[in-house]
Amino acid sequence: MTDSGSGRGGIDIEERGRTGRAMTTVRSLAIVALVVTAASLAGCGMLGGGGGGGDGGDSEAQGNVDAPREVAEPMDPSATEVFDRVTEIMGVEAEAPGVRVTNLPTSRNVSSPFVTAMVGLPDDPQRLTNPINATYDPEENSVLFNDEAVFDLNGSQIEYQLAYNIALGLHYQNDWIDDEDSQSAVLRGTLNAVMREYTDEHMDTNYVDAYDSAEAAFESTTAYEWATYEALNYYGAEYVASQTDSASDIQSIYEGGVPETTEQLLHDTDEGATDLSVTTNVSNWWIDERMPRLEATLGELGTRAVLRSQLSASEATAAADGWGNDTGMAFTSARNESAGAVWVHSWDSASEADEFANATEAYAEARADGTYAVNVTRPAEDTTVVVAHRGTFMQNAEITYAGGTVEVVVGGGSS
Fold this sequence. Notes:
about 20% strand; 14 helices
């Protein structure tokens, strides 16, 4: 899974829409007691389907509601109208998703051991806990609203969440993305383009952030959030804006082939990643995790974003230029508070590795008074290894380089 008006209907009535906007119909299931939200978010009978006579399933829907809650503001337009608007903006046809209220986690913590080690937690760690109001499930083609949060949203917020997740679903249905790249900068950029047009055309409130520069975007958030996802948001939106005139053009980005690395996205180049081999051997007393979002690499953009936590924008940009490849992992002791993260880069040339190493020394010095100490080494001319650590991690870690492979052994290796 990823992160309504006259068509108000019941809860948990699962009916799929037919292909094409013109073929999408509404099965109305009015539940007066749910004056707003739950009624607005009809189970999937709201969008799609055809069929159904009699009472339209009203009695079944009411049977799913134990304790109706009143909410202050109804959603207008209906979910079907929102679907039609989004498909028109994107210039695509698709199957209307189901929409239902269900039990979801109320929040998601976006922190990761790797970024915590490399950047350090923000002054207010609560910023890293994001509410989950709605999500899209590609397996069942449904927009799912959180049954705990939905009653606290107003009509405009519900409309925005619905439009956003419908747009995300259309990306899946058109095979533009899959679960492997659902966090990519390009996806963030295309969703931004859709929602910017949607809010400009159909809403009084603009929920889409817009910044005149990367510096303004960086200053609006924390270094942690910038390194985790805000840099992806900004540069993804910038890339999409440079490639399209409107959201109806975004399909050309996916059909023409999206950038495979953020280096390609930033520099409009076809240059691919270089070879990088890293192995790990970890004892049972240490927990090892990959990079944030389960990705194998942070890329040039992620490298720039991490360094930006301590360096100026120009210094971070220059240091990340010449990126060839990178990968990293975080380790946490099961016995005490010791922890560490290892970040390995390959570079296009020795001089670019020099520039990164020098910048990382300055980055490490800036973090000298923090929870984590930082070391940087050069096992080969075109290879760098950055280690952020606390406690006894360094005494328990051995990092070697042989035959083009970096090996990381923690806690003596597998027991």
